[in-house]
Write a structure and sequence with these properties.
Helices cover 22% and strands 29% of the residues. By secondary structure, it is an alpha/beta fold.
């Protein structure tokens, strides 16, 4: 990751749930460690205060690989709901952890397996539960 990490904002509910998940993982879980750092640096707000263009849990987004320009529509989900074939990207997947809290238009450099780094950009937040009044997803 670069030293210039983008600002991220998450909901209090996402913070609490993800902190619980991290507590159940081995301390050496690579993505868990990275997600923990992200949670520590995030601005945490109430669900009704989160702007609608920020990636929260269960948001449907269009993301882009900045190197290839390849775009994917995914929903950021909790691990038990993950199914990449159906576009459900786990928060514990390397790219999933990178997307949480980003605003549409923001990019982040993120380590991926094999010692490489990938630059991902949030093209659009197509649907966000909080913006739709769904605070219990």
């Amino acid at each position: 990751m670069t030293s210039q990490l983008p600002e991220i904002t998450i909901t209090e509910q996402d913070f609490d749930r993800l902190t619980g998940i991290l507590g159940s993982l081995p301390a050496t879980h690579a993505v868990g460690e990275l997600l923990s750092v992200e949670l520590d640096r995030a601005t945490v707000v109430e669900g009704n205060e989160i702007p609608s263009d920020i990636v929260t849990m269960n948001s449907r987004i269009r993301m882009e690989d900045a190197t290839t320009g390849e775009q994917h529509d995914v929903t950021l989900v909790y691990p038990r709901e993950a199914d990449f074939a159906q576009g459900k990207l786990s928060i514990l997947a390397p790219i999933g952890a990178a997307l949480l809290g980003l605003r549409a238009g923001q990019s982040i450099d993120w380590p991926i397996p094999g010692g490489r780094t990938k630059t991902m950009r949030v093209v659009a937040v197509q649907w966000q539960p909080e913006a739709a009044g769904e605070f219990d997803l």
